[in-house]
Amino acid sequence: MPTVSFYLLPSDSAHERCLFGCKLIEKSYRSGCFCYVLTDTAAQSRLMDELLWTFRAGSFIPHQLYTGELPVVENIILIGSTNPPGAWQKNIVNLSTQCPEDFQQVERILEILDGSEDTKAAGRQRYRRYQQAGIEPNTHKINPN
Q1: According to a count of CB atoms within 10 Å of the terminal CB, is the N or C end of the chain lower?
Q2: pTM for this one?
């Protein structure tokens, strides 16, 4: 069973949600974890790709878009809107509106919700789905700085 953590942001900004995702991805990378960033669309994947290059000066997080072909190296963050390949199924940063497929096989799922009604509604559905699978998600309310 995976560990599922929901991060609840005070802002209803999708951009703030993506920036917070970058911070979690960086923290994951620095701890030696090469996660998969699950998005809803190719456009959202490209946005995350761009933000990971620019969200903080001096930060370097090796990453690339996943288009169905495995990267040459495994020590890289992958970003995509399809199921993650084998080596990247352990840890998922979920920015999509859906639960990752085969989520019971994942070790850790990080869910990031902003305050918009659509994001919260989709998050509630995922939360219930995890509970129905016997997983008790953790919730972290992020305070504004």
Answers
A1: C
A2: 0.93
